[in-house]
Each structure stands twice: as C-alpha cells, then as structure tokens.
Amino acid sequence: MQKAPHTPAETAATEFDPNADRLREECGVFGIFNHPDAAAITALGLHALQHRGQEAAGIVSFDGSRFHSERRLGLVGDAFAKREVIDRLPGTSAIGHVRYSTTGETILRNVQPLFAELNAGGFAIGHNGNLTNGIKLRRDLVREGAMMQSTTDTEVILHLVARSQRNQFVDRFIEGLRQLEGAYAFVGLTNKKLVGARDPLGIRPLVIGKLDGCPILASETCALDIIGATYVRDVENGEVVIFDEDGFQSHKPFPPMAARPCIFEYIYFARPDSIVGGRPVYEVRKAMGAQLAMESPAAADVIVPVPDSGVPAALGFAQESGIPFELGIIRNHYVGRTFIQPTQAIRDQGVRMKHSANRAVVEGKRIVLVDDSIVRGTTSRKIVQMMRDAGAKEVHFRISSPPIKHPDFYGIDTPDADKLLAATHDLESMRQFIGADSLAFLSVDGIYRAMGEPGRDPAKPKYTDHCFTGDYPTPLTDQGMQDPSQKQLSLLAEAI
Amino acid sequence: MQKAPHTPAETAATEFDPNADRLREECGVFGIFNHPDAAAITALGLHALQHRGQEAAGIVSFDGSRFHSERRLGLVGDAFAKREVIDRLPGTSAIGHVRYSTTGETILRNVQPLFAELNAGGFAIGHNGNLTNGIKLRRDLVREGAMMQSTTDTEVILHLVARSQRNQFVDRFIEGLRQLEGAYAFVGLTNKKLVGARDPLGIRPLVIGKLDGCPILASETCALDIIGATYVRDVENGEVVIFDEDGFQSHKPFPPMAARPCIFEYIYFARPDSIVGGRPVYEVRKAMGAQLAMESPAAADVIVPVPDSGVPAALGFAQESGIPFELGIIRNHYVGRTFIQPTQAIRDQGVRMKHSANRAVVEGKRIVLVDDSIVRGTTSRKIVQMMRDAGAKEVHFRISSPPIKHPDFYGIDTPDADKLLAATHDLESMRQFIGADSLAFLSVDGIYRAMGEPGRDPAKPKYTDHCFTGDYPTPLTDQGMQDPSQKQLSLLAEAI
Amino acid sequence: MQKAPHTPAETAATEFDPNADRLREECGVFGIFNHPDAAAITALGLHALQHRGQEAAGIVSFDGSRFHSERRLGLVGDAFAKREVIDRLPGTSAIGHVRYSTTGETILRNVQPLFAELNAGGFAIGHNGNLTNGIKLRRDLVREGAMMQSTTDTEVILHLVARSQRNQFVDRFIEGLRQLEGAYAFVGLTNKKLVGARDPLGIRPLVIGKLDGCPILASETCALDIIGATYVRDVENGEVVIFDEDGFQSHKPFPPMAARPCIFEYIYFARPDSIVGGRPVYEVRKAMGAQLAMESPAAADVIVPVPDSGVPAALGFAQESGIPFELGIIRNHYVGRTFIQPTQAIRDQGVRMKHSANRAVVEGKRIVLVDDSIVRGTTSRKIVQMMRDAGAKEVHFRISSPPIKHPDFYGIDTPDADKLLAATHDLESMRQFIGADSLAFLSVDGIYRAMGEPGRDPAKPKYTDHCFTGDYPTPLTDQGMQDPSQKQLSLLAEAI
Amino acid sequence: MQKAPHTPAETAATEFDPNADRLREECGVFGIFNHPDAAAITALGLHALQHRGQEAAGIVSFDGSRFHSERRLGLVGDAFAKREVIDRLPGTSAIGHVRYSTTGETILRNVQPLFAELNAGGFAIGHNGNLTNGIKLRRDLVREGAMMQSTTDTEVILHLVARSQRNQFVDRFIEGLRQLEGAYAFVGLTNKKLVGARDPLGIRPLVIGKLDGCPILASETCALDIIGATYVRDVENGEVVIFDEDGFQSHKPFPPMAARPCIFEYIYFARPDSIVGGRPVYEVRKAMGAQLAMESPAAADVIVPVPDSGVPAALGFAQESGIPFELGIIRNHYVGRTFIQPTQAIRDQGVRMKHSANRAVVEGKRIVLVDDSIVRGTTSRKIVQMMRDAGAKEVHFRISSPPIKHPDFYGIDTPDADKLLAATHDLESMRQFIGADSLAFLSVDGIYRAMGEPGRDPAKPKYTDHCFTGDYPTPLTDQGMQDPSQKQLSLLAEAI
Predict the structure, then answer these.
(1) Could you tell me if residue D421 is inside a domain?
(2) What is the model's pTM?
(3) What span, in angstroms and rounded, lies between the C-alpha atoms of B271 and B290?
(4) Which among A160, A178, C310, D37 is least buried, having the fewest CB atoms inside 10 angstroms?
(5) Do you find a cis peptide bond into A308, omega within 30 degrees of 0?
(6) Are C160 and C176 in contact (CB under 8 A)?
(7) Do chains A and D touch (3 or more CB pairs under 8 A)?
(8) Contact residues on chain C for B80, CB-CB shorter than 8 A
(9) Is pLDDT at A1 greater than 50 in this prediction?
(10) What phi-psi label fits residue B10: left (phi over 0), alpha (psi between -120 and 50 degrees) or beta?
C-alpha cells in the first residue's frame, strides 16, 4: 500500500500517544475458501490482525454468483462484529483486509479489498506491502486510458490483470505480478479461486492454515489461533498459491532467490504470540532484551518496560541481568480520542493521558527503561521526564533494536529521514535529547544473534534491515522520479 | 441513467403514496462556470430540480488544481445546505446532479457526477436520460480491460473519452458521444471547461442561463429562477456546448434532425413554473385540462384536483366547464416514512396518510376528479374510494393525458408493460377497476392541440410520445439482447 | 405550554420561510384507551396533528403494569413511524403530544407527555395551551421543596396532583385544575384511566372520538379521520372527561361560563379538513375570503393565493368576485434546512427557496394576493416584491382576518407587541411597508359574520379574539410580576 | 448507586470477557472549585477514573449564574474529549461522575450528576456507593408528593435537601445525610460551594487534592496525577468538607467511629498507581501475591498472570517464589463488541477473542496462574482450558484474595449469592469446576497481613470485608422489606 503523507494532525497526536512514536505496519490480510461461515471467520481473523492496521477494514465474499463487499473506516470490532453486516456477506469464500490508521487519504474508496469486474468474472484483492514502482505503473496505465478508482498502489495489479490478454486467470495474475517491484503479500478471490502471493524476497509475511479442512491465508499465525485453525506452512518468497475446487497449486514464477523477510515483524509488528518464519515472536523479543543486557548492562534497582511492546524485551533484560522487573508505568486501558488539554502544563505532560508513572516503583530508584525502538524520540523524552517527575534517581534507556536511520518503502510508515532521531543525531546527542542518564541500542549484529545467527553477513543478509543499514533489497523506481508533481496520485479530493 | 429493477419495497410504498403511481423522471443536472460561489449556487440549482430526482445528489467542483466531490444519498437540502459541505467544494466551477429515488442499486458508487482521471486531467460528468445501447457498450469495454466503478450507463461515456486517442478534449468527448444511442442531457466539467450535450433528438431538456455574466447549464428554467439567473436559450438537439476561459463554442457533431422532446416533461415532470422549449408548463397543463373538458365533459357540482400535480389541469377544466374548482382532497405536508399500519382497515385506507378527503366539499356532490396520468391505477382506485367514503354522490375521473400503453427506455422509470393499466385493460374495464362513474383520457391529438398543434402528424411527430403511441424514436439495442444474463451489470453487491 | 424566547436564529429563518410570518400553535394532543394498537394509532393521530407542532413528539403507553415513554425531537414521521419504536410502547392505552418548533428551550426534558410517579401509581400528561399563572405556581412549588424536571408549565399540574391529599385520582386532578389559570386542553393517562380536560372557556380545542368501540381524545377531527375513527362530540369548556374500565364519566368542576374558543383555530391553526366546534374549517375560511371580497373588492385580472394557507380564502374571494383563481406562486415541496445563501442578491430573495413566482400567470396582470394574516409583515413584503419582479402590473393585498395588534398568552407563539406590524403601523404605513398598491384586512365584525354571527357583541364576544381586540378573557397573573428575574424558569442549561 | 438487575445479556457477555467475572465498582466522582478550566480538568479526572465506571459519564458546571449539564452514555473519552462538549460547560466549578456499565436501567435520566433546583439555588450531586435504606426513603418521599426523576438512590438526597426547612445549605445537606444508611462518597456543587461527604465508616474512598491552588475532590489519587495536581489528604470517614469563596470548612456531623474502608479497593477496584488510605495499591497487591506464595506455594516452571489485574500479584508471587514470571496469556488490545461466533467450537473458546495463549511460554510447562479473585468461576475455567490447549503440563491456580461468599450492598455489583462459586462449592469442588491441578486462595488473615496487620481482629476489623466474612458493617434496611414489589423503583420504562 502507498504511504500517505504525514500531516500536522499526526504530529499532534504524537505528543500524547507513546505508541505514536513507533513505526506502523500498514496492513494485514486474511482469506478462507469453501467454509460455510467464510465472512464471520474472516471477521475474526481480521480482529486478530487488528494491530497491523486500525484505519479501516473490509471483507469481500463470493456466494457462487455475486461478490459482496463491505468496507468501513474504523476497527473490525466496530463494523464487522454485527450480524447484520456479516449477513450481507453471504458465500463460502471470503477475503479481508485491515489498514493502518493514518490521516490524509483516509477515504472509503481506498479501503480494501478492491474489486474489479474482469471480462471472465470478478476479482477482489487485498494487499500488505508497498510497490516501489506503483506510481510509475499507475502513470502508464492512465496514459493508456485506464480509469483509477482509488489512490492505492494495490489498484495497479487489478488493471494489469484486467488488461492481460492471457486466457487463464493464473496466467493473467502472474503476468501482472511480473511487472511489480517492491514488497507484497496478496490475498485474492475470484469466482473460482482463493489466491495468495508473496514477493520474490518474502518481505511481508503470509501463512497458510487450515480449519475444518478448508484452506486459509493470513498475515500471521495469531489469526489462525483465534479461530482454532491449524498452521500448515508459510507461503514461500516468490510463491503464488491457488486454492480451488480442484485442490491446491503452487507456482514459482520468479527466478529463485534467498528470502529476506522484514526484521521489523520480529521487533515490533507481529503479535508476540505469533510464530513468524518458524520463530515465536515472544521468545525472539526476550532474546533481543537478553542480548541487549549483555551488550549494554546498567547498574540499576529495577527494570521498567515501556508498555506494552517493550514488555518481552524488558523481561529478557531482567532475567539476563537479575534485576527485578516491575510495572513502573501503568497503561490506561480507556484511551479514546485526544482530550482537550486545558493548560500548557498538562499539554507538556501529554503522555499521561495514556500512561502514568507508578510512583511506588520508581521513587528513589535507579531504573532501566526498556523499549523496542526509537523513531522520532519525542515520546521517549516525555517518558524519561515522567520517570524523573515520579522520583527516579537514575534513568537508563535501553532499546532492543539498532538505531533507525533510513526510511522504509515496503509498507512501513516511517517518517522522512530528517524526522528520524538516529538519522540526525549521534548517540550522545540522542541521550541528551531524551534526557536519560545513559542510552544504548542493540547492535545490528546483536539483533542477528538474537535471531540465532552469528551476526549479519553483509554479502548475504538474511533479513530486510535497510532501516538500520541503508541496504535496500529492491530497486526504488518511484523514488527516482525527477518531477515531484508526477507523484500526485489523484486530481480528486473526496471525503467518502 | 440505467433503470433499477422494481422491488417489493417499491410496490409496498405504492399503497400509501398517490404520487407513487406517477411516472418518475430519473435525473436533473446543473453546472456553472467561473463564479466565485460555484458550489453554493449549484446546490440551490439542484434544490430547484429536486422534483427530478430524490434518491441522491452530488456536486463536483474544480478549484484550479484539484477536483472536489461530495455525493450523498438523500435530498439536496439534507446534504448540501450546510456550510461545511459547501466549504469542501472550493473552486469557481461546479456541476451537480440529482437522481431519482428507487430501491435496488441505490448505492453511493452510482451517485453522480461520476469522475475520471484522464491522462490530460480530470473529467466529471452528470447525466439525465438513458442510453439504449449502454449495456452493449459496457460489455465491449469490459472485454477490452476497462474496470467499471459503477452500474450506471453514465460511466460508459467516461471510459470512451478516456480511451479515445484524439488529442483535444472536445474531440475525445464527441468521439464518445457518437457511439451512444438513446436520450441524454450531459453536463461535464474538466480542468478547463464546462460542457453540455443533448442527444440528436433533444429528448431530455437542457437550458443555458447566465448569472453575473457566468454561464449556467440546467435541466429546467426553475433552476435559473431560484438564483435570479436569466434564461439565455435551450441547448439544441444534437448540440455540444463548451464554456471556457476563451468564451463559448457550439458543436453540431450529428446529422441535422428535427427535435422530438419528451412530451412527459409537459404532462408531469417539469415544474409548473418552468418554461420548456419556449412554453410555460403551467399554461400547457391548463390547456390540457381545458381540452379534456371539451373532449369529455361531465355534469357535476365541483371539480376536484388530485393534488398536487393535477391542479393546473383541474383549473383548466373548471374554467372551461364553468364548474367550481374546490380542494376536495387535502394534502398532509408532513409526510415522512411509511408508518406502521396497525389494522387492516387502516392499511386499506393507506392513501389517507398523505391525503385526506375534505368532507365539507365532497359530501352529497357530483365530483370530477382531475389527474394528469394513470400508470398502474392502484392509487386512482383508492382516491375514488376515499371520495365515496366522504359522501360523493358521483365520481367522474378525467385524465389530462392519453393512456400509457408502452414502457419508456429514455430515462423515465415506467413499470413493465404488464403492470401498466392501459396496456392490459380497455377503457370500460379501467373504469371498473378504478370504481369511477365515468372515466375519460385526453386523446393523443388532444394533447398535440394543447401544445398548439393541429394534431399529431404520424409522419413527423413533434414529440417523443411512444408511451402513448409505441413509436420509439431511436433503436433499442440493449432490448434486443438474446441472453438476459448479459444484462447483469455487475457481479458486485455493495451497500456503500 | 410556556412560550420560549425569540432568538436570532428564529429571526434569520423568517427571511426565507413565508410560513415563518404566521402565528404558531404550540401543541396537539391525542389519547386512546383500551385498544390493542394504542401506540401505533397514537402515532398516526399525532401525524395528522403535526401542523400543530413540529419541534418534538412523544408517546406514553401503559401495558397493565408499567408505563413506557418515547420522546423525540423532530417530526412524528421521523421518530414514530418505525416498528422498533412502536414496539417499545406496548399496552392498550396511550397518549401523545406534538410540540411546536421553536429554538431556545428545545430540549428533551421538555418534550411531553411528562410523567410522574404518584404514590398511587403513574400519571402521564400532555398539554395544549398556556397557563397564565404557571410561573407563579412553579415558584410556590419550588419554595415548598418540589423538584422541577422541566421548564414547561405543564409540569406544574403534575406536582399539584402529586401533592394533593385527596384519595381519589379524579379529586386530586380537579384540585390541581382549580389552581390553574389560562388555556389548556389536557390528555392524561393513569394506570386505570384516560382523562381529558378543557379550560373553563374552552380556548383550546379537544374532541372525543371512537374507533372499534374504544374512546379517543384529540385536538382536531383530522386525527380521527386518518384512522377511520368516528367523531362523537367536542369536550365542553370546563369539562373533565374520564374513560376507564367502568365506562365514561363527565365532571364539571367549574362554575358554568359561556364558551369562548380561540378564533385563530378557524383562521389558521386547524387543518382545513377538520370540523372545529361543529363548523368545517375549509368552509369558514372560504366564507372569510368571500366576506373580504365584499368588504374590500379590487379591480384585478387574477386572484393569487399565498400558499398554502391562503388558498381557501382566495377561492372564496375568487368565487365571490368572479375573478379567476390562478396559482401565481408555486411552492417547492422539497424544503429542508436553510441553504447557505451565496450572494446578497440571493439572500434578498430568500423567499424563493420555498416559493417561486409563476411568471406565466403574473406577468402584465393586476393581481389580488390573498393571505390569512400578517404578523411582522416581512414575508408579505418579499412576496409582493417577488410578484413585481415577475411582472405583475398591480398588486392588491387582501388579508382574510383583522390586524393583529396584541400578543397572545394562551398557547400561540406571537412576537412581542413591538414586532407586530399592525401594533405599530396604521393601514397606509403597512401598505407602504409591504409595497402593495392597496391593502385591506377583514373587519372584526366581518370575521364574526363569516362565522354566522351578525357581528361581534362586545358584551358577550363568542370567541377569544384578544389579538385583534385586546380583550383578554382571563387574568394574566404572570404578566403582572414586578421582578423580571422571577420569570427565569431554570438555573440549568442542558442540551438533552 | 442502586444496583441494576442481572440480565441474560450480561451473562452472555461473561463467556467472552475474562474481566466479566470480576466484581465491579459502580462509580467514580470528581470535583474542582474555582479553576478557569473546570470542565476540561473534570473530564481528564473522570478519564483517569474510567475503570470505576464505563456505562455513562456526566459533568455539571456552574458559570456564576447558570448550571450546565452534559450527561452521556459511554466512555468519558467518547463524549467529553471534544471541545464542543467542554465549551457547553462554562464556569469555574464543576463536578463529574462515571458510572459502571450494566444492562437494565442504563438510561440517561439515571446518569449523574443529578441536579435539583432548590428554592435557594441549584444543587448538583454525584454519588459513589449505595444506600442500604434508599428504597425505603424513596417510598416515603413519593408518599409525601415528591416526583422522582430517576431510579437512582442518589436522587433521595436531593429531595431530602429540597424539603429541609433549614436555612443554610450546609445544614440542609447534613440533615439529609443523617437520614442515609450505607456507603457513600458524594461530591456536590451549589451556586457557591463544592462539597464532599464520606459515610461514617468511610467505606468508599474520597481524596482531597490541589491544582494551581484550587481544591479538588476525587475518588482516587490517579485522578490527581493525570492533571499534575498534588494530593492533600483523604476525606475522613464521616466527614463533610466544604470549599467556597471563604475557604475550607470541615464538619463531623456523626458520632466518632473507627474507619472501615472497603478491602476490595486494594484487591481489584483502585488503579494500581493510586495511593488509597496512604498505601500504594501496587505494593499491596504484590504483597498479597507474595503472602499467597508463602501460604500456598507450587512446584512450577513459570508464573503466568491473568491479565491485566492479576499482574502485580503474579509479580509478587514470582519474586517470593523465585519462579520466572512470563506473559503466557496475551491480551488483544482491540476489543470492541462481541463478535458473531460462527461455530460452536469457536463459541466454546470465547475467551480467545480478548486473550490468547502464548504457546511459546506455556507448552510443556508446569504453570502457576495468578488472578486476583474468582466470582462465578466461568472465566477461570476457560482460561485453564486455554492453557491446557496450549500444551501446559500442569496448571496451578492461585487467587490473591479469599473466597467470595457473600454479596455486597455498598456499591459493588456482585451476583446473587447462589451465583458466587465460593458460596456454593467447597475448595475441592471449585478446583474440579475450574479444572486446575491445584487451587488455593489467600486466607482472610493473609490479606490483613498483606495490609501490614498481624491478622484480622474480629472484634475490631479494620476493613469492610463482608464478602469474605459475612460481617456487614451497617444495617441493611431495604433487604428486610417483606414485599418484593415494594422494591420496584419506577413504573416508567424509558430508553432515553
């Protein structure tokens, strides 16, 4: 999916939400074939994938003669928990999509799955990832008379399939895929088939599961667990999988390449109870925390996680260091909209709307704060201040991943490079900005070690890790465009 | 615009709404160029055209760099009276559309104006009328890889323009028009031009007006009156008009033909204060009533109009006959949804929700009920019964237009032929069905006489009048399709 | 019901709504006892009474053990047409209320019927009228520790009944009524009884009807007609009627007085098809128009009614004068919110949003405009201008009631005296303000003649006519209060 | 606040929400005096108290001349975060209330603060607690002619104050308090004063804070922390505090008694970062877990908290036992409505909608599950099963409070005694019901020890602990009523 521009509103939100300073996954996908409760199961699967996208959700089902589509802004549980919505999605096959909450082009026509009427029947598709040549392909298609419905890069694949002169759907789909560049995990639905595809490097995840004998595709295993489905295997990098009445087919239309899945699924995106690429995410995160404790120990009284994503790494750090783990920051479970901030003093303490210091743990103590990443650093700074206000004697900040110095173009919403704290500051100036007594990041080799490798092999890195290293694994065609006006996706501004 | 199927819900509504048994116009259009309040004026123009379509409304504006679109289900006054909506439609050019209220495919993606990003810029269009080869064109386009966004026939013209290989917009638009068959009045907006077009026979109306020196296009003159604009002239049949910074151009891309505007604009659709084709609609309707009084007089005490559309004809009938005009039926101005009908007796009297008998006028009297048309006859029957319940001694029913025997395919929502009372009943059995003491329709020659003609010349009929005569003025390509499944417009069912 | 203050918003609306310059009735009431569809029938009855109040509506039903209440802002057809709302109102007895649309205290806690838990059971009540000692009674009750729920004067009667020391409900109710001063038509519901009461002069109307043998109370007969109920008789002035399982009782707790019903029910408030005090309203209005034609004829070409309420009087004027009746003003049936007015010129012509001139009728003609009343005169002025803009040669304005010089305190929403055109201008300066070529009002004796009287007998006037004569029929206790701050009804501002 | 009846809907919800099987606090209160941002600060304070009530929230402000009230169903963050709502609450004093989410009488007229117009001015009040003679007082008041607006017991105090014959507000308020029995923490607002009151035993909490020199009242200190206010002291048991322009007064209208605060504030209700009665709640909970580990150790591999409320006790248990603490259950942060459950198998695993097993932690392990309480036991049973499904070898369930055997009548929503697992089962049958390998509760003496006492002194118990001991600290007048019909609070059923 195409990234939306960063707007002032988003910046404002940063001030009050500690999670606002995390990177954001942009999507999750789910599909099931030949099950009597296809739409209801898809809704549950999307609910389990909600952490991958909170902006909007959609489900398309096929009832044997017509496709049915429900797409809504907001959470899965708001729109798709109701019987009347599920009842409008009849049929035994369905795919679904959740999309990350950004401002900007948050409009219904961009909510996936997208749908096209092909000459041979309908085709719906949902996408997790981002094409690095999406704008170029779009420009070419419009020049040829294609009418775009959305401003997503996902729509490009629909037009490519619609315009293919091949006879078989699979051939048309693969002909389309071959023109794409970048990261993608697709789930698609035709009047006969459930299809899945993962880009040649397998940057974004996609797994195959089974429920009551029916095949499932999902971004993460947690979407299988919620419905009691069993995990079969991961879709491989560069693989196209097809499920239909005749069973299962696997296609490998690309030259063989070593997989390079995105390291951020392990650091932050995937749910801790998911198994990604065969590894339990919770255990990986604990290992990153333990590795960090070895690389950068601190003399302290308590280990305090930044909730919630810092918890596993903090447990790993605590167990490795032997220092007690305590909840020094309490999360408010009732977090809705941003409140009016009556005074400047309260505005300055914005983070307390969502978290508060647990003074009983912090006061008079030397604490190690453990978090999984620093993006802009604005929230980290507020949290350190909150700890000091609550009486912490020393605050040592430990980050269980390396410094983020380069933006992503594969479906992670990163700020521009000049907004990335680590792209513009050295370690000491970062420490000063954050206000900690000490600051340390996990090393790049350290993160590979937590994954069970001896370290990073620059000749054959096993993960997509360009945010730390600048080593982008694919061409970045759209980034090379000279004329920035060519990046404008649409002349149309429409709210709905 | 493509007709939607008749559904049970619509039939149910028929029982309670006397207006439910009228034919329905399917759309109205409006456009203005180069005025600082383009969107607000368009909203007022659409409000004046609301009688042409109550299902949905939309406005597209252009602000010099981007197009802005707001499309909503419901009345213009509900969606477009508010400042915040108008403020989302900046720019000095705008077009708008109102659409008739049907059930079925009432979905946002069908609400006009539709919009396309052409290679050379954006193009928005609104349509009043119906293409008689719209399904065939759609099928051809999909076969060539076009992706349809809506189930309207209007979208076809967008794709034809998008795919044209001509360089100039006007040439591309005309190349598209030449492939169309049927009735249309288009208003379109590009990043440079306001365009209008009327089909070769001028079946649907379109007028040119002027406000503060800025050109306007509108379906009827009442949309000029509401904003104090002046009427310039009608767009001619087969004419394409273009307004841009360089002024005005007129194109006549079709071979010259005599105009045949739709006679129903005079009988029922146009607002009584509009001037259509140079004739005041109110005076034409009075003349129809007077002609009817001459052709089919009745010995009676009072003339009672069926409100509101029967009023001008009833006044003409009363003035011609010398019998007093009285409000024997009172309209309830507060008519919202259909109420729950607690008892069968109340259900049987459904019409009283919206109208009631004025017993003081009716009781003990011989009355002439005057209405403009009979479609299914179900409401006429209830009204006659209501008059009898209120004590009428005799009820003579007079209809100020001929019997409707043939369906329309040019933008009027008629029921199938077997639902048209006059298609399946002779005059006497119609009288019995309705329960009147006498029944008479205006003759076909009579209606031409009310228009100032000596009668209908079958060799050169001056109006589109096939509903009475069966004389369709264009080919009906889509009607000739063998396979009814080919008429299915979309595999997608989507509520929004 | 207590009058709400006039606010700027209301003034603004005046500019665009010709009906904004009419007096407004403030309520309508309905009740039914012992019918299986009590709530659904009450909804229909209220719908027929909608012209008496468009601000809000409410229904209370009793199911044998509990009372159920649904009260909503907006029209009956919006809130009470739906099955799910009616289903929340189970039981065989129900009362309902519609309330006039004002700004100011339009809040849910003021929507009637109001309800109180008495020691002996529940009591719900709806009120049409206004107490002239309501503020004094309220002040006394609060001083004694009563807690007020609303700012309506209706609530006073609930507290008086709650605090009565009598044993029987009827005795408690009558004890309460005896403390009231002013105009009221009440319908009430207890766990055993449907009750009705009309003030000693019978200022506001209330009729008894019957459906399927079940008793009904309603403000007007049109609420009986809509459900096919039969009219039994009017509740008499000063009468209390009780319907319960034991049948019907009538109480006359006040000294006998001659009735003085409000003359405005005939002039404007009642629906034309209602029979009020035994007289058909439509015929009375035609008689007023005919009387006006005799008193103040005009040499003219056409008679044009100001729609819709001027139509019967215009017909009477036309029939008496022999001048043709024509629709010179066309009403737009789709009138919702007030639109944004883009230009000053359009603002100046505000009336055209809701009405437009029918130029074909008006141009070059001498016209007589007939309306039922003039309040502030602002709309009349715009209508005259609209006629002149449409080409009228002469405009003669005729009003089918006398000049309104005095405010009302009995349930009609009149502006303060200094806003009443006739209170501050003589006839000639009114004519100049309105811009007509001539202006005439019906005389006070003339209106009595249209009612079948020889004229007004100042010693024993048969109608409440103080707006014309200044002759108020009851004391005006609240008007005599010295301290205006004592009129503040509540310290609480609450939107819902 | 009066308890609402338990309905089937609530029972259904129990199946899917592990928190559904906890006791529920019924309210939180907040008030501030003389601060320019009174309403905005109150909204933030209520947000911090949201865990005490999620059904509804309300704020009343006083602007020097009028009171303003906004009351809404739903969360504080939904209704009161918006500027337009806060802007409708002008003034420098405000009080607010959050209410627990139950079904049944969830209606707007019950949402607090309630408001009354007294003869001397307005009075708004919010209540945390429950009166044990509320129904009796209500019955007496209605008999005397009082009209009840709500079905809350809170309203009783308003009527008592309204009816008092004393001159000074404080005297009237105290006269009202003296008639009450049970538990209460009140915040009230008059046109001059902010008042607080705590029942003679101090069962429900209430603290005094200060922000920018302005006094604050709040249920918990976390409501002070969120706005950066400082804690001053707790309101004492039986104390009435008054803040006005003249400063501060304290009244002690009751005979001196030893305080007996509710032990459940420490076990479950209060936020872990609050300081209640001078003790940090987080530390108390850890101490309960540690005490439990001493009383009932288990041979296990990991300690797993039932999130989120079991976490502090689990940490205490882990630190005391030396067994590692691990997140064996992952909470889904996106929990909205109850989803449709497509299959019986999924229905049976309902708990997984909100939590899921972290197989990497659990599989093949002996685990100790730590939770804070068991009410009905239905959720505990599902959690044990979820652990076994994830491969746990042994499951030892440890509860950091004693068995709940008796219902509460002081503002905690407990099920009837026959629904309390511990009231109907002995330890072994509870273990079997839950399906654990072992089960242990903290002892009553143990919980006193965790509070720093040597144990419970039956002669002078320091806490309200009747749920464990049956020792109710006040009379239970309403429970003694013979006629259950007398408990019906209202004859009126109204949705809004």
Answers:
(1) yes
(2) 0.84
(3) 19
(4) A178
(5) yes
(6) yes
(7) yes
(8) 339
(9) no
(10) alpha
In a domain? residue C468: no
A75: nearest CA in chain D? D334
Q: Same domain, yes or no, for C248 and C291?
A: no
Binding-site residue numbers of D are 309, 371-372
- Domain end, chosen from B232, B260, B288, is at B260
Asked, for residue C487, whether it belongs to a domain, the answer is no
Whether residue D278 contacts residue D265, with contact meaning beta carbons closer than 8 Å, is answered with no
Q: Which residues of D are annotated as a binding site for Mg(2+)?
A: 309, 371-372
Alpha-carbon gap, residue C431 to C377, rounded angstroms: 10
Which pair of structure tokens corresponds to residue C443?
A: 């005389």
Same-domain status, D250 and D289: no
Helix (H, G, I), strand (E, B) or coil at B323: coil
* CA distances from residue C341 to B81, B86, B111, B220, C12 in whole angstroms, order as listed: 9, 11, 25, 21, 12
The pLDDT confidence band at residue A119, using thresholds 50, 70 and 90, is confident
Shortest CA distance from B59: residue in chain A: A494
Find the range with the poorest average confidence among A93-107, B83-97, D42-56.
Answer: A93-107
The last residue of one of the domains, among C455, C475, C490, is C455
Task: Reply yes or no on whether the pLDDT at D484 is more than 70.
Answer: no
Residues of chain C with pLDDT under 70: 1-25, 101-106, 335-338, 345, 347-351, 482-489, 494-496
Is the domain of D302 the same as that of D166?
A: no
Residue in B40, B273, B353 closest to C330 by CB: B273
Helix (H) or strand (E) holding D231, with range, is: strand D230-234
Which residues of B are catalytic, by number? 27
- How big is chain B, counted in residues? 496
- Decide if B68 and A492 are in contact by the 8 Å CB cutoff: yes
> Residue A181 maps to which CATH number?
3.60.20.10
Reported as a single tens digit per residue, the pLDDT across A75-89 is 998 889 888 999 999
**Which residues of chain B neighbour C332 with C-beta distances below 8 Å?**
47-48, 50
- Over residues B390-444, the pLDDT tens digits come to 999 999 999 999 999 999 999 888 888 888 999 999 999 999 999 999 999 999 9
Helix, coil or strand: residue D204:
coil
Angle (nearest 5°) at CA B323 between B321 and B325: 115
Domain count, chain C: 2
Place of tokens 């009672």: B304
User: Is A262 one of the catalytic residues?
Assistant: no
CA of B430 vs chain A CAs: smallest distance (Å): 41
Q: Is residue D1's pLDDT more than 50?
A: no
Share of chain A above pLDDT 70, in %: 89
C178 inside 8 A of chain D by CB? no
Share of chain B above pLDDT 70, in %: 89
Distance from CA of A491 to the nearest CA of B (A): 5
A484 close to D (CB below 8 A): no
Section A39-63 average pLDDT:
94
Q: Which pLDDT value is given to residue A3? A: 40
Q: What is the CATH number of the domain that holds B301?
A: 3.40.50.2020
| Residues of B whose CB is below 8 A from A191 | 491
| B202 and B289 housed in the same domain | no
B131 phi/psi in degrees, rounded to 5: -85, 135
Average pLDDT over residues B372-383: 93
Note down the domain range covering C132. Answer: 8-260
D235-252 confidence digits (pLDDT tens): 999 999 999 999 999 999
- CB count within 10 Å of CB D238 equals 20
d(CA B253, CA B257): 12
Identify whether the C-beta of residue A46 lies closer than 8 Å to the C-beta of residue A126.
Answer: no
pLDDT digits (tens, 9 = 90+) for D208-238: 999 999 999 999 999 999 999 999 999 999 9
Strand runs (DSSP E) across D270-373, as ranges? 275-276, 279-280, 302-305, 329-331, 355-357, 366-371
Q: Do both B370 and B249 map to the same domain?
A: no
Whether D490 is in a domain gets the answer no
